[in-house]
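Fold this sequence, please.
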Amino acid sequence: MLAREAIPTDVARVVVDPAAYADGRTAGEAFAWLRANNPLGRAEIEGHDPSWVVAKHADILEISRQNDLFHSGDRSTTFTTLGPKRLPILYKLS
């Protein structure tokens, strides 16, 4: 897991846009690009708090096991896609 620079703004906008997940393709293309080019980077978009985007499954698993190191404020969070429509779900872990 190697952090690079901020991810490109156009890709970051797709990642944070709920509508991008509706067609089953747009968000998938953005994450495919991220996995190939910048699997761990920061999304820095005007109007949103900066956040880390982790695109590889192995990295997501590793991060989810280390809540003391990787957290979002007072409570850790994990963002994942589940279900037949692969809708984004935000989990808050205690």
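The first strand starts at residue 40 and ends at 43. The chain has three helices and four strands.
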